[in-house]
User: Fold these one by one.
Assistant:
Number 1:
Amino acid sequence: MTRLARVLSWILLLSTGVAAWAADNHEQACSVQSVSIEGQSGLVYYPFADRDEVGRLRLIIAARGQCRFGLALLPTSSAELLGPGQPVSVTFRDMSDRILPMNGNEQRWLRFEQTARGAEVDIALLLPRGQARRAGDYANNFVARIFANGHPVREIDFPFSIRVAPQVDLRLAGNTKGQLGKSAGMNFGRLETGESLSALLAVRANGAYNLTVTSDNHGQLRHTSLSGDNTAVPYTAWLDGQQLSLHGGGDSRSYSTPHDGKHFRSITVQIGDTRGRVAGDYGDCLRATITTLQ
């Protein structure tokens, strides 16, 4: 009788242990109630800025139980935004600057913060600098796959859009500096009739543009310290081989959108008659101004 009682006691203890484990497992289960993504509005991309542009998305997951969330992006959406020009390339990153892969299965564990709305985390959308895309609106729809405790539980479509701003940029290089910059010089040394020099103009634009060239001295080199008779030397200037009219308010040319966002142009200056001029230093300032036509 004693032996039977011991066996029954062991069976009861075993059954009680199983029931306790099952109840604890039920309490730990993760149940996702809703998933939403909030996008940043009004993001503007400047193609020739000296920085990458970064947009922000906010992922919000309402859930019950013990949850550890991960995220993957599905390959149904290419990593680019579509618009009036060539696509704008983008990459998705977490706040640790890790790239979020777009194969749909390789999840990233993210550090969520708990708020009144649920578990929330920021996602960065990076637009690399230097993409000379035509001005306008660009957008695309992406698909995010949510993982809870290692298992895929939800998929959500989310749109993202930006505006590419019309932008132009101009750099110059003359014979006094070998590198491109905001200013350049032409040093003729001893002035001689017919001598010529050229300066390079590097234009970056994502749309049609206007280039205006003006002369402070209206197409003449003037003595830097004297005025009066024989203190000016005339010269002729050309932009890409076309003569400029600098005697009035300047000369302008309009150009279509560069195919790859870049145009290289040149200004050539040829010295006129120097006979009988007063000895000394002479100079002028040519100003090149570029504006968008959009």
Number 2:
Amino acid sequence: MKNLKLLLFFFSLSAMLVTASCSKEEANNEKVELGEIKFDRERIGTGQYVTASCQLPKDNSGDKGYEWTSQPILSFTTEIKNGVSYAKFFIPYETTGTIEIELNDKYNSLKPAKAEINVEKTDVNNSFWGDNLELTLKNRPELVELETVYCGKMIEYIKNYTGDSYWGYYSFDDNKLVEVSEIRNINSSKEDFWYINKFNLLIRTKLRYYGFTVDKAELINKDGSNEDYQHESTDNNYFTEIASELINNGAEIHIHAHNESTNLLLSALPNTSTSGTDKISYISKYTPRDKQ
């Protein structure tokens, strides 16, 4: 009899716990849902500034505190406008793959909104081929219109190629990005071969960052003759000779390379437009693979 009473006691306690648990679950189910998280673009890439947005419930868009979070961690700049919460964030250049993003209220009184994005390495310099002008200007706000192209002075974006700024030029056809060029004028009071060493560093950095394969590397002399350019050499005497050909004799170096989406023409040219230590210009020209 005593054991029976004890059994009834535990049965009653279990029923109370189950009831409490169900009540808590029902309360969670009754929470007002936040809207769907949307993004200002279909493809999201490295080095881009992206804006996420989410419609807030009516009567819950004013004083209530909202918080955007992500995994891995990103930094958000947020605002609420016309009942919509906006979050602007930057995708680091080294970040690719899945990022989980969530919007919740700080008091946990609403069902959070969740979304996943897939970050790809961009085709070129923060952009994908075919991006329209509006989207390109979001990714590169320093661009301004100059006749038939958009250009701007930019800080070096490839992590292991440090220190230099450069001029970027973006061309569009039918409101689609079809060409990007980067021009670097290098200042140095060092020996001339240093210019070529710096150029070779740019070659290695571009090949590694974008996964380019070299198709042809050539030195074109002023008389039109050409020879293979040994960009993987470590002989500074060779590079001194090449630098002299460029600086004194008007020769040019052209590296032709490609990856799955992009053709690259990387050139070192004698700089005839300036004086002083700007002896050589490096020009990187990118075009889509379907633009032969």
Number 3:
Amino acid sequence: MKTYSLLWAVSVALLLSACATTEQVHTEIPPTLAAKPVAQTRPYSLTPLIVSVRWPAVVDPSISDDLKSAWQSFGDVDNDKKFSVGVLSASNTYHAAQTYVALRKAMPEANVVLEPQLVTRDKDGGIGLVPIGDASLPAALVVDLASFDTAEFPFIGTSLSFVVRSPSALSPANCGLLVAAQNQLRSSATKCASPSFAVTEKPPLWYVGAYEKGAQYAGAITSLPLDGKHTLVYPRIRLSSFSIFGASRPSYVKNGTPADLGEIYNIELDPRVTNIAAVTSGAPAVLTTTDAATRMLERYMRTFDPPLADASISGAPLSRQQQANVQLIKKLLITELQARTKRDATTTGWILTGEFGKSFREAREKSYSGFNKMMLTSWVSAIAVTSAGAATGAFNATNPAYFSNQATMIMTHMVNVDMAIGAAP
């Protein structure tokens, strides 16, 4: 009887160590948040409609300790050895590619682009974000994501957090914060100092420290539909089912392996990714777009002709030559979007079907096998488990540094393509 109790206690301790959180975690998407893609019954009022996918792709090594502290604080994790910059960038890069695919399917008329972020020190000494490559495209919607994993068993108990934002001028009642994770919001809604036509702020996500535990967000709603006035808040959702006997593989893990580039739009995606894409598809209908088209173009226009950008937002009549230049810049935007669409589709295929994706799925499979082996071992012999050091990472799936190198290669590829686009006649 004592042996059984000891085995039970050790198993529960190991399970809690792997889950690494004291917060209530949902194992499925709540019915009040389950969405289906919203079909557009009329042309988008913002043309072209640009939807950006942003994620922490590359990390400045000098801030790794700051990230580790943010990770520990957010996840209530005592053992900092379970944190890995490589796992952070790998998990987010893989899920960003899936988010890109889901958005392309849910919003076929939109221009979906990838905008990876460098996580580095900001001007105030905190954790900040710098876009990798050009970031002047006038995005009407931005989908930020951040995963939470441990390096001990990466990619199996992943908690995904999403933020959907617009320029605050397009949704002033909630300052452009359309969707956010409830556990990463501050207590009260931020007042918009002045309406902006660009999304340049840090998202309320754990890796930049912009969250407050136990916050009761003043402008929150907890069920669909989006209303343009409040922020829809998500609970923490982890789809893998953990028990003292091991972890189950969700169907998207079993059926989400594309054989080649042509299959990436047919594979089963993470349901959380599919759902946030469906939620985002309903956002254009709640944006305030009156007189927004010219102001949205201002930031992009400024990269070519700053005086023209100033003149266009002043309200003064434009000369015939200025009007012609505005039309030329709009044509340049369409041309760049066509090139970016091709680039990002190729990059997404590279992430999901290339060496990176294969290594990610292999590491995930090793994590499932290692975790289940650990839980089985704990039942066979509690002494063997503790002496083998299973709770300290004996079943680590792979070398996280590999993923850091791979993520850097992917980002370098994207920047090179951007440079080629800029150099093209």
Number 4:
Amino acid sequence: MLNERTLLASLALTERLDAAGFALYPAAGTPLDAMCAATTYDTGLAQVPDGNFQTYATQLAQRTSQVDPLMNCSEHDAVLDSIAETATNAVRRHVAFARSVVAPTIQNLYERVRHSVEELSVSSLLGLEVEVWREPKPVLNPALQTELRKLEDVALDDPALSMRMPDLTIAELMELLKSGSGGLDADIAEWVAIEGDEFFMRVWRDFFQQHMPEDSERNRTFTERVTDRFTGVPVALAVYLLARKLLDGKPPEGVEQPLANYRAQLAEFRNQAGGALTRALDRMERALKGGLLVREIAGSKTVVYEPVYRDYLEKGGSNEMLFANALSTPFMMSTADLLERKEALTSRWAAHSALVSTAESNQRYNKIIELLELHFRSQLNEATEGEDTTAQNRDTVLKLFRDCLKHVTEGDLNDLYAVCLKLVCRARFYTTDAERILTGMELARARNPSLSPREAATASIVDYIAWWVASQMRLASC
């Protein structure tokens, strides 16, 4: 029922509207219009002595609360209860449909488009990278370096890959890698964790089991494998540690090779792998002493030596300078040369990145728009039930979709889910209030991330009902 408190709460808004020369009226034929018609006391404020709204509110509350003997309640309350029941059932259906039908459709479209966007080729800007070249930690261990230096004078040779060792488990291989020295074994354990089990299983197959290559793979020699510019050092280290340990013990069960041949071949593996490691150590020392920063520039990747790179950054160098250097020819390889041209490299990168990022941003926008339409159509074609499966309605849905898609801006794509929500609601479910309900839930969660889905739905429903009531009001001059 109407009471004085409710009526007085509307006074401030009423006075503001009146001062501005406006009045609110219910739209004809709406539930709000029926509510107002059920207010039996129709007297203007001007008829109240001294314009006393308190007295008017008291009288209005009393008149509208008069009980109709036939209904056993006031007419106002009877109309209110009827409207409330109708509205509650309608809102419940709207919310259930939005959450059980529309929301999964939105999520499905979002996941499809997001997955396709992730597969787009990496931009030429984002594709540029600096990779810090770190030698395996055991190679930097002083005890191992001392051991390796004893092999500096070993003549370069290329042992045959003809050993036929038995299969070993990864646990057995890990035992063979150990040196028995606490400090070195700790470095080995850290390196093993970085490389992963498959790396060591592959080394065992390739070197110790005469592993036959895949059809598309050339059978590389021992020397090619341990001197490979990018994988040679870790491969040589694994072969060295395994061969050394095997030489110190008895042959594993299952080895049918004569003992002398077995030991001779393992010694060759150890010596040639160790020799490759000593040459790698020499390269590291030369790079550090000469300030050689860039180890390799391969396509979009600039590979730098870790110790020299740290020094380069401390002296004011940056990755952006290295990116600009990768776009130049000839490449500069040393810290000194790069720092000498610091200003020119920085300026070049700024100009290049601005130009490329603008072009790529436009291309990316166009591609995502294409993906949105592609997946929306695909999703619609897969629908087997509902109004949008009819040919006539499909045409309407697609027309609405294209109209909505025209208004999607580049900035909108920063929130791809919100874009999918608008497109799905305004095109496929344009006859429902799903967008208002689901957007209300998203806004509620954005304001308070700790809200549960049920609490977010409740907050959205409150806003939705307020909008529903407001939509039944008309503003007019008075």
